[in-house]
Amino acid sequence: MYRFCKDRSLNKRVYIAVATICSLMMQLFVCLPVSAAEPKQVMLLYSFGKDFKPWSAYATSIRAELNRQSPWPLDITEYSLVSARSGDEDPETPFVEYLRAIFAKRPLDLIVSVGAPAARFVQRHRQKLFATTPMVLMAVDERRVQYSSLTSNDTVVAVRINYLAAVENILKVLPDTKDVTVVVGTSPVEKFWKEAIGKELEPLADRIRLSWTDHLSFEEFLKQARTLPPNSAIFWELMIVDAAGVVHEGGTALSRLHAVANAPIFSYDESFFGREIVGGPLLLVADSSRQTAAVAARILNGEKAGEIRVPPVQFASPMFDWREMQRWGIGENRLPPGSQIYFRDPTLWSQYRWLLILIASVILTEAALIIGLLYEHRRRRVAEVQSFQRMSELAHLNRLATAGELSASIAHEVKQPLAAMVAQSGAAMRWLAQKTPNLAEARAALGKIQVAGDRASQVVENLRSMFRKESSERRPLDVNSLIENVLGLTRREAQKHGVEVQVSLFEGPMPEISGDQAQLEQVFLNLIMNAIEAMGSSTGGVRTLEIKSAASDTGDVLVTVADSGPGVPVEKFDKIFDAFFTTKPEGMGMGLSICRSIVDAHGGRLWASRGEPGLTFYVWLPGLKR
Under a CB-based contact definition with an 8 Å cutoff, are residues 522 and 398 in contact? Predict the structure, then answer.
């Protein structure tokens, strides 16, 4: 290092060399991004103008595809061949000079012509118009390409329009078609296709009659389209320039025709599909644009255009517009195999699939729950019926047991009217046995016999109704009468146990209730007998049984049965209505449980309260609403 520094001349030369190398490297690094970022120059040339169908659809699609597939930034410029609308080639020379002047200082990397008129223009002026610039001819039918004039810098992404297949599609979906009107104008390209279509459709001459629109203005054709003969169809080829010299851009002409035509419209290109035409086998814009962009990318990457060969784009699977099918009565069974239907009215299922699934799930869940609830309800009803039957049987057994206990009272109730009948019959015999029969007294005695007999019959009937097993139908009842019937049966038991019975029945018009007489009499019988037995088992004290009936303003009835017996301990009070609970050594514990079940079945309530002393029972029954 020391020796290197000592040699100053050598040191200076090294510094200069290093500086030069660094400068060159910096320039290289600076220039590389600029060069890499330099956009590729691409020119799109339209056949008639940017807004003429079908080429306008191709132009929009190819521009998008070029930007999508190209790995380089693109500078795309667009120009329209206005002169193609007529057969006059004189304006083309100034247009060529104009393009040469535009790109004199900015050479093009690629030219893309869209449609047959643009393809013929660039082929005609190839040597004058960028002789060495690579060129791609797209959206042009094979019949419109001069393959002999192609140079090594030219390639073609052609299409193949099969007019015979397009018209045969019309005859398949509408087999009764007899007349086909071909819409075509007067520009050079339209004249070419009129002749080409006529030749291609010659095999169908015995099936259809062709007519053309090149001799009509478009307004005249619109009038004619309103009154086409039955079994007609319209085939849309092109309408660039009509017979009156009017130029038709965009899709306005086709839309106007669709609005008035009394026959379905067909075509061959997807750019016309979407509202006006029925459909069929079509050329897809995306297919041509995708292939053209792929070829352009290869050319911009350095491949020779003339060495790139791609097959022509042909008809894709048939496409049909559901709306037009419905309009013209075309069934799906008439469509060619593999057809795709577009614009079908969305079904509820397609629009609200998940909502419908959710609703169906909710409905099914609710249905399952309802079925389960109905099943449980049925089981409960069956259980309730069985329970009621068991309760009725137990009530009958309870009545039979009570009948045994009341046998003395029953015998007394029956014996009294019988004894009266015997006494009165003897008196009547004596009145009649006198020399002068006392008919008045005899008649009075016989009347008393009748009253006693009715009384005996009533007692027997009440006993039968109370102690029979069958349950009678519900009918209007007077609660006071039920209580009086039961008191008649329990009078001797009360006297036997030294119980004073105090009765306070409602004095006004007593509301009627709807019920089973035997069952309700059993309720009052059980409550009264329980009270008598409870006070009879107690030692000392006053033995009082109070029975009251009352009516509410709403027409309901309340009966209270209160005793002065020993009552029930506090800890056992809540269990008095439980089955098999009893405070009597010989009791079954079913009486109060049966009574509550009977009252509940009649829509009423039975409850109790502790008194000082004894118990008070309350029976509330709904009145009969009229």
Answer: yes
Task: Quote the CA–CA distance of 417 and 457 in Å, as a whole number.
Answer: 9
Q: What's the rounded Cα separation, in Å, for the pair 235 and 226? A: 15
**Which amino acid appears at position 433 of this protein?**
A
Q: Which two tokens stand for residue 156?
A: 């073609």
| pLDDT tens column, 58-75 | 888 999 999 999 888 999
Here the tokens at position 214 are 């090149």
**What number of other Cβ atoms are within 10 A of residue 294's Cβ?**
15
What is the reported pLDDT for 2?
36
Secondary structure element (H or E) that encloses residue 139, with its range: strand 135-141
Looking up tokens 């009918």 gives 475
More confident call, 529 vs 626: 529
**Residues whose CB falls within 8 Å of the CB of residue 322, separated by 6 or more in sequence, listed in order:** 341, 342, 343, 344, 345
State yes or no: pLDDT of 35 exceeds 70. no
Enter the tokens of residue 52.
Answer: 């003429």
- Note whether 531 and 487 are within 8 A (CB): no
Query: Has residue 262 got a pLDDT over 90?
Result: yes
Q: Which amino acid is at 534?
A: A
Contact 523, 599 (CB under 8 A): yes
Residue 503, beta-bridge partner list: 547
Half-sphere exposure of 13 (CA within 13 A, CB side): 4
Mean pLDDT, the chain, rounded, equals 83
- Concatenate the DSSP letters of all residues of 61-78 into one string: HHHHHHHHH-SS-EEEEE
Question: Residue 24 — pLDDT band, cuts 50, 70, 90?
Answer: very low
**Cα maximum dimension of the chain:** 195
Nearest alpha-carbon partner for 606 in 591, 622, 621, 589: 621
- DSSP lists the bridge partners of residue 157 as 138
* 3 state DSSP class of 101: helix
Q: Tell me whether residue 542 is exposed, middle or buried, using C-beta atoms within 10 angstroms of its C-beta: 0 to 12, 13 to 18, 19 or more.
A: exposed
Q: Which two structure tokens, joined as six digits, stand for 165? A: 């297949």
